[in-house]
Amino acid sequence: MRLADFDTLTFDCYGTLIDWETGLAAAIGPWLERRGLKKTHDEVLETFAVCQSAQEDETPAMIYSEVVAHTLRRMAAAWGVAATDAEAEAFGASVGDWPAFPDSPDALRYLKRHYRLAVLSNVDRVSFAGSNRKLGVAFDAVFTAEDIGSYKPDLRNFDYMLARLAEMGIARDRILHTAQSRYHDHAPAQKIGLKSAWIDRRHGKKGAGATVPTTLERAPDFYFTGMAEMAAAHRKEVAG
């Protein structure tokens, strides 16, 4: 199997193109200091993963900025403290400010010359607009949880994306889903027979970070440690 076997790349955004672990840790840092909480980076990420997943399961129609706001409230409760409405809302509003991984913009600009690019993200439209400005590329399609009314790993999100892409004349076997999260992306992609490329942003690190730990039935079809590595692999294929 080669990257050139596909003509459409569908992307998860947060964790794959946008460095959400750095972004959310920076956003929550001042709140932790005000509450006098001494939490390691891994503790913050792991608690966020559990609390966010629970919130998304309970309120699948809630837009993502509000999910993140409620996630802070859940994290606070888990740690025996409180978060004010203003603090929760500020945390939720931070999503569009989370930084892009340094290699994302250049890699996307290169891949745009060879593929149609689409996004399937657990986000709302307003937050994604802020992130998209950091990525600097015009996607051919953007599918958000706000559009669909549910959150990955719900298969509804993938079914929605595939149906909309089919309307654009894009066949399933020409799509390569590209993502970091095993939980949100690779496990459901495997369930529906969609090929995937793992962008392992956490290579060399322990744990699953801000995502729920997940064991896959098989390895993803491609493996890269970053977007620059994926772009370089495509260049190598093209060069023959």
Protein model, in words:
The chain is of the alpha/beta class and 240 residues long. 49% of the residues lie in helices and 11% in strands. The chain has a 6-stranded parallel sheet, sandwiched between helices. The radius of gyration is 18 Å and the shape is globular. The chain starts with 7 loop residues before the first strand and ends with a helix.
Task: Provide a compact summary of the structure.
This protein has 240 residues and is an alpha/beta fold. Helices cover 49% and strands 11% of the residues.
Q: Which descriptors would you attach to this protein?
A:
240 residues, alpha/beta, Rossmann fold, DNA polymerase, domain 1, 2 domains, 6 strands, 49% helix
Structural class: alpha/beta
Could you list the spans in which at least 5 consecutive residues all have pLDDT below 50?
none
Assign the CATH topology of the largest domain.
Rossmann fold
Order of helices and strands: EHHHHHEHEHHEHEEH
**What share of the residues lie within helices?**
40-55%
Q: Give the strand order of the largest sheet, numbering strands 1, 2, ... along the chain.
A: 3-2-1-4-5-6
Largest sheet: 6 strands, parallel
Distance between the terminal alpha carbons, to the nearest Å? 14 Å
The level 1 CATH classification of the largest domain is Alpha Beta
- In terms of DSSP E residues, the strand content is 5-15%
How would the global form be characterised? Answer: globular
Oligomer: single chain
Q: Helix count, per DSSP?
A: 10
- CATH architecture term of the largest domain: 3-Layer(aba) Sandwich
